[in-house]
Each structure stands twice: as structure tokens, then as C-alpha cells.
Design brief:
By secondary structure, the chain is α+β, with helices and mostly antiparallel strands. The chain contains eight helices and twelve strands. The strands form four sheets. Strands 5, 6, 7, 8, 11 and 12 form a six-stranded antiparallel β-sheet that branches. The chain starts with a helix and ends in a 6-residue tail after the last helix.
Length: 303
């Protein structure tokens, strides 16, 4: 009798565990979603939102089950039709809530452009932290240097004309002595460096997220989002300090300023940090492509 009881108890325990697991993942729940594509700043009304039945396991955190909870509020991040509305993207129309309420003191929210490679293939989720590597191509810095120098050069046509008789012997020597021009040699290859770490992810657009989607014909599943078009270019919202920080020896700048500059003229690569965060202060000197080439091949590039 005891031999029969133990297998039954184990089978019952397994059945209960499977039931609980399935209940947490596939149980249908009511969720408020965008009825149509919505821009950031849209006032939410009954005309632009609706309630759908979706499977629980496919949903992000912070969803709403009743449209009354979002009516009259403002969308702080753009949503596409079918996207669930969450507490991260919905705020009060005239008060500090939503994303502003999530920001820590002396920090701001900043959006950076990413694609499938630089944005970790869409596996990022709100609440995670990332480290940023900036990749700078010197050709983008030197473009237009000639026009800059030309603009700064004095107009010699407006200078007074002096004859040798107007100058003393010493003054003539100074005028006639050529002054060597120092030409600064620009970098010859792109360079990469870890510039800032510990940035909190605030918002990852639903269209950019990597998701394992079930049967797309079923109303209980979210529509597919990870198309090549949606991941070719998108933006991710990060929390960054506005206070000056030493980003390199002797160089002070706020992480927000660094991100804005890199986002405008360079390339940003995100590195996903462990859930416990990094346990050391990154002091990487960085590397440029020419030095890497020399280290691998033994040949030095000549500019």
C-alpha cells in the first residue's frame, strides 16, 4: 500500500506544479491596449484604447485590466496598435507621474538610437542596467575642419600695407622670419571605449522587444513584433545622471551629455549588466582599430 501511495503523491505534486505554471503563463487576462497607433502626448480616451483578452505569460509588467484606470491620462511614450498600456508609459495629464516619477534625483531620461546589434537584439527590459561603449570614427570629427580653419583665418587683404622703410631692422627680421606651422595629426582609425555604466533602462518599445510568439492567429497572443523593419532602428529610453562625472582621466562631463553627443555623431553599443550590477569600477583605457591591427598582425599602419 505504501509503495502505491508514494507514486500517487509524487504524481499529484507534479500535476499541481504544472497547473500552477500553466496558470501563470497561459491563463487569459483582461488587458488595456492601444486601439490604434498613438503618439507620445496623446490624451487617452475611450476612442483610442480598448480591452483585449491576452495570455498572461506574454505581458509586460504594470498592465491595466480596466480602461477606466487610463482614461484621462497622457501617453508619455508612443505605442502601436495592440500594444498593452503599462504604468511606465502612462502618466497624469498635469502632474509629475509616469516616467518623471520614476526618475531618481539628479537624473534625466534620455533616448538613444539602437538597432538589432547595438541594442542587444531586443532582449532588454525596463529595470535592467546597461554599460555604454562609445565608438568614434575620426573621419566624422575631421570633416569640415578645413572650413572651420578657413573661417577662423584673418582676412589679410584688410591689413595695412607697410614698406620696408617704415620698419626698423629688428622689425623687418621678425616680419621676414617664417613661422613654422604645427599640423596636428588626427587619429587614423575608429576608437572604442567604455564611457559610462550603471544606466537604468526605463522604456523598451514593444515593437523592438524580442519575443517568442505563439500562434499568431489566436486572439490570446500578442501580435508579432520582432520584424527586421522594427529592429533596423529604434530608440531606448535610459536614466542618466546630469551631474558631472570623470568619464576619462581629467575629463569631466555628465553621462547625459556624453550620451547626447555619442548619439548624435558616433555609435552607441549597449552591454547588459548582471542583475546584481557590476562589482568593480570600469577604468578601461579604450582601444583604436590601428592599435588592434598592430597587436594582431605586428604591422604598424602609417597615416
Amino acid at each position: 500500500m505504501k509503495r502505491m501511495t508514494l507514486p500517487l503523491v509524487l504524481a499529484l505534486a507534479v500535476a499541481i506544479g504544472v497547473f500552477v505554471l500553466l496558470d501563470r503563463t497561459i491563463r487569459p487576462v483582461q488587458v488595456v491596449v492601444a486601439r490604434q497607433d498613438l503618439m507620445a502626448g496623446t490624451l487617452l480616451t475611450t476612442d483610442v484604447v480598448e480591452v483585449r483578452t491576452l495570455q498572461r505569460g506574454n505581458l509586460p509588467d504594470g498592465t491595466f485590466s480596466n480602461s477606466v484606470d487610463v482614461i484621462g491620462k497622457t501617453l508619455v511614450v508612443a505605442r502601436v496598435a495592440g500594444d498593452p498600456l503599462t504604468s511606465y508609459v502612462v502618466g497624469e495629464a498635469a502632474s509629475a507621474s509616469g516616467i518623471p516619477a520614476m526618475l531618481e534625483p539628479d537624473t534625466v531620461a534620455i533616448a538613444v538610437r539602437v538597432d538589432r546589434a547595438t541594442g542587444l537584439a531586443g532582449v532588454l527590459r525596463p529595470g535592467q542596467t546597461v554599460t555604454i561603449i562609445g565608438i568614434i570614427d575620426p573621419s566624422r570629427i575631421t570633416q569640415g575642419q578645413a572650413s572651420l580653419y578657413a573661417a577662423a583665418a584673418p582676412d589679410l587683404s584688410l591689413a595695412p600695407t607697410l614698406s620696408p622703410g617704415d620698419l626698423t631692422y629688428e622689425e623687418q627680421a621678425v616680419v621676414n622670419t617664417p613661422v613654422p606651422t604645427v599640423t596636428q595629426q588626427p587619429p587614423i582609425s575608429p576608437a572604442a571605449r567604455v564611457v559610462v555604466s550603471g544606466l537604468k533602462v526605463l522604456v523598451v518599445p514593444q515593437a523592438f522587444r524580442y519575443e517568442e510568439i505563439g500562434n499568431p492567429s489566436s486572439d490570446n497572443y500578442l501580435p508579432a513584433r520582432t520584424s527586421a523593419a522594427s529592429q533596423s532602428e529604434n530608440v531606448i529610453l535610459l536614466q542618466a545622471s546630469i551631474l558631472p562625472t570623470e568619464i576619462a582621466p581629467g575629463v569631466l562631463a555628465s553621462p547625459a551629455e556624453v550620451l547626447a553627443l555619442l548619439n548624435g555623431v558616433a555609435t552607441i553599443h549597449m552591454l547588459l549588466e548582471p542583475a546584481s550590477g557590476l562589482t568593480f569600477d570600469i577604468q578601461a583605457p579604450g582601444i583604436d582599430l590601428a592599435k588592434l591591427y598592430e597587436a594582431i598582425t605586428g604591422y604598424k599602419l602609417i597615416p
